[in-house]
Design goal:
Layout: H1 9-19, H2 25-29, E1 32-39, E2 49-54, H3 65-73, E3 82-85, H4 99-104, E4 131-133, H5 145-151, H6 155-160, H7 177-183, H8 193-203, E5 206-208, E6 211-216, E7 229-233, E8 236-240, H9 256-284, H10 291-318, H11 328-342, E9 349-353, H12 369-389, E10 401-404, E11 410-415, E12 426-430, E13 446-453, E14 456-469, E15 479-489, E16 497-507, E17 510-515, E18 519-520
Parallel strand pairs: 1-6, 2-3, 3-4, 8-9, 9-10, 10-12
Antiparallel strand pairs: 2-15, 5-6, 7-8, 11-12, 11-14, 13-14, 15-16, 16-17, 16-18
């Protein structure tokens, strides 16, 4: 049985457009830009500000690491203007029934009415401190109806059938609908055009260079305009992207090499399915009510979740016999807005955040076909930006900072001179804020990539991993570090960014808080 399904890219795009009434006549007539917003907190003109970054947070286990991270964030809440979330708000499949326990309760101090979190409905969240997410793959995931019925039944039945993903419950994400209702301005909910127009006139009253846009007001109205969006704060342009719609692998070539790759993928799928059965058998021999077994069960469940991700990546590659669906509309939007940003005098820096990292050394993500697909599409986009701008950048990288999640770690990478628009980028992966951390790959911190040349292909270094905080050690010496980052933005052109990582680590049954040395970029 297929346990988790990922909606096709055209479905994701169309469903999200319907939810925000994309280009509705009432929106067009008011010249509203549905991809921009203004954070109206009285501080957005201050060139020195701070923000927090979290990601891959949305689960609750026995030790509740997500809450530990949230508690570490609290002393910074008054000093930080907002929190960027790099995706996977809810595990396993972004179901609405897990928002109360896996999002509202852990971050209750960030919410209006958070002193009584049980009274907050997932589709009526108002933030005191903005939490600004991009959508992750798990926020889009669904499950087959039959498995929903089994997984949503009683715990004894779930254990009887040995199904691994007991966090699925009665609902999937409904193709990203739960995320949209929780965070986006869900205009589809209005029953009449009059209601819609009244709402637009009340909340789309801010103005930017591209027209009217949504006014985000902490404590009053905290909705995002779209699944991808931009805002300006302290002279920095922030671009939030939905990488789930440009992560489809390129098709395998119709050559002998392509057929060999297909056979290798099919063999790999068979091997991990056999490994999956061995893990399920091992789970059957453990009792979650016994403390000595519970930790081992958590580790085995983490392996099963990782297997699910590998299987989905393999399925995407095996299905890639035709040109993949790619969200060129979003990529074109990003390209154009980035060019406009460089031509705007008030802008002194640029930050981009999205879920899937283009560069990563976490063991389960670095060789995924989706990682390479995102890298190549981002690179192609930045190449076009670089060609248009010419010497206008004066040797600066096209963006100052790229923030990602998806990989369950905290990692800092810097790209080399790749020969493309993605040269000399600073990349921070913040995906260790609640889901079980993972190890760094055995191949080490240097990322190599094959480039075509006159002799066929050659390997070149494209990035270095300068910091990796993830699972390490074994057995009694195993360490599980959960993390977030604080970023302080300094005045000046170009701006300076001071990165401060924070870690809540579980070791030998105890929690330890660590603050690592900051660095400046």
């Amino acid at each position: 049985m297929k346990f988790i399904s990922d909606p096709p890219i055209p479905v994701k795009i169309q469903k999200m457009k319907e939810r925000v009434c994309w280009l509705h006549p009432s929106i067009v007539s008011r010249k509203i830009d549905q991809t921009s917003m203004v954070i109206d907190d009285g501080n957005s003109d201050n060139p020195e500000f701070s923000f927090l970054v979290i990601g891959d947070s949305g689960s609750k286990t026995r030790h509740n690491p997500q809450r530990r991270v949230a508690e570490l964030m609290l002393p910074h809440r008054q000093e930080c203007s907002f929190v960027l979330h790099t995706g996977d708000v809810i595990y396993i499949v972004g179901s609405r029934e897990y928002y109360p326990e896996n999002f509202i309760e852990p971050y209750r101090e960030f919410l209006v009415g958070g002193e009584n979190p049980k009274s907050i409905f997932y589709d009526r969240i108002t933030f005191l401190t903005p939490i600004l997410p991009v959508i992750g793959n798990h926020d889009y995931y669904d499950v087959p109806l039959m498995y929903r019925l089994l997984a949503g039944s009683t715990l004894p039945l779930r254990r009887l059938f040995r199904y691994k993903n007991i966090e699925i419950g009665w609902y999937g994400s409904e193709q990203g609908d739960a995320f949209a209702r929780a965070f986006l301005d869900y205009l589809k909910r209005f029953q009449s055009q009059q209601e819609l127009e009244f709402h637009l006139d009340e909340h789309y009253s801010a103005k930017t260079e591209t027209g009217r846009c949504l006014r985000y007001e902490p404590g009053r109205f905290t909705r995002l305009p779209n699944r991808y969006y931009t805002f300006r704060y302290g002279g920095i342009d922030f671009f939030a992207l939905d990488s789930n719609t440009f992560n489809e692998p390129s098709p395998l070539p119709a050559t002998k090499e392509g057929e060999a790759s297909r056979r290798q993928l099919e063999k790999r799928r068979q091997e991990i399915e056999q490994e999956e059965m061995r893990i399920l058998n091992a789970c059957d021999r453990l009792n979650p009510d016994r403390p000595e077994d519970a930790e081992q069960l958590d580790a085995l469940k983490a392996k099963l979740y990782q297997i699910d991700e590998i299987k989905i990546d393999i399925e995407k590659q095996l299905a890639s016999h035709r040109e993949p669906a790619v969200d060129f509309e979003q990529l074109q939007w990003f390209k154009q807005r980035l060019i406009e940003s460089w031509h705007t005098d008030q802008v002194r820096g640029r930050v981009v955040y999205f879920h899937h990292p283009p560069y990563v050394t976490e063991a389960s993500k670095w060789d995924q076909a989706q990682t390479l697909a995102v890298r190549h599409r981002l690179r192609a986009c930045l190449d076009e930006v670089a060609q248009t701008l010419g010497g206008a950048t004066q040797g600066r990288p096209l963006v100052d900072l790229i923030l990602n999640g998806h990989a369950h770690c905290l990692e800092y990478l810097r790209t080399t001179d790749t020969g493309h628009g993605d040269s000399h980028l600073h990349c921070i992966i913040c995906g260790g804020s609640g889901r079980r951390p993972r190890r760094q790959r055995e191949q080490g911190p240097e990322l190599m990539e094959a480039f075509p040349d006159s002799t066929g292909t050659s390997l070149r270094k494209v990035a270095d991993s300068l910091l990796f905080i993830g699972r390490n050690g074994y057995d009694a010496w195993k360490r599980l570090p959960y993390s977030f980052a604080r970023i302080d933005v300094k005045d000046g052109r170009p701006p300076k960014f001071v990165i401060r990582p924070f870690v809540a680590e579980r070791f030998q049954g105890e929690w330890y808080n660590r603050e690592l040395q900051p660095w400046e970029i």
